[in-house]
Structures are given as C-alpha cells and as structure tokens.
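Database export, one record per block. Field names are fixed; values are copied verbatim from the stored entry.
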Amino acid sequence: MNARLENALHVQDLSKNLFSLTAATARGMTIKIARNDCIVKKSGRPFATGSRRGMLLLLNVEAKFECYMVEGEEELWHRRLGHVSYSTVNKLIKQGCINGNCIDPSVVCDLCATSKQVRKTFNSNESDTAARESRREDSVVCSDVLGTVSPASKSGYRYVLTFMMMKRHFAMV
C-alpha cells in the first residue's frame, strides 16, 4: 500500500525519520502497540509494522528514493533541468525518474547550440575596413562579472560573465 506523508517536519542531521502516531491517528490510521512490536493500519489494512527499541518504536519501512513523476516531453525535461546533456536526460528516463522516450542524441537544442558558438578572433592584420567596422557604434560590447555566486552551478562555477551589444541591446550570459 502506498501512502503520502504531509506536513512533515525536517530535522537537519537527524539520522532517522520521525513518524507521529497522533498525526497518523488524526488521519484515520489505527495503531496497535504490543510489548515488543506495533502495527499501523489504514482502512483496516496493514500499512507498517514496527518493533520496540528502548522507549522508541522503530517502523520497518522500505526506503524509496524516487522523483515525482511528471509527464512531459523529453525536450521540456532538457530545458527544465538547465539544458543538461541529452545523455543525462536519457539516463533519468532509463532509471524511471522521469517519463518519456529516450532522446535522439543527434537532435540539437537551439539555445545550447547558440551558447556554445564561438566567434572568430579579431586579427589585427586585417584590412583597415575591418578595423573601421569594429569601431562602429553597433559593435560596442560591454561586459560585467558577477561573483562569487553561492551556491555554485552544477558544474562548480561560481562566477557569471555577461556581454551586451549596446546598440542592439542583445545580451548573453
């Protein structure tokens, strides 16, 4: 039987999870405590069993670590997870953490492709025309650095560098 705990409190650095018997009975569960063990029932069906250790009752529950399942297109998961690699999205799909079909690695995300583009470096030996064009107002680029950022990004970066083309107001982070 599956159950959902609501309004649970988190105690940092606590090595065990706490279960409130009074909160469970308020939700309609029944608890029978014997000398060395206990049973928790929901709608008359066994929900959990436990054993006594000193003055505490320890519930015998199976720890499950799973993601909330949300239907969504694979490309949407790629964007939701901060444009992680498609192999990472495919790994999450195979592990059952998210629903969907595996993504074809040959698919290209426009934003990822744009962010990975590099511009040809400026060669000072180029003609005077290129030098004049680089001084035009629409080629003025301003940059700014933000950091140290906490928490660090998934890749461990702690700084953000922004570029802005002044005339077009085009920004890139």
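Remark 1: The helical segments are 21-26, 74-80, 86-94, 110-115, 128-134.
Remark 2: Strands lie at 29-33, 37-42, 45-53, 56-60, 141-147, 159-165, 170-172.
End of record.
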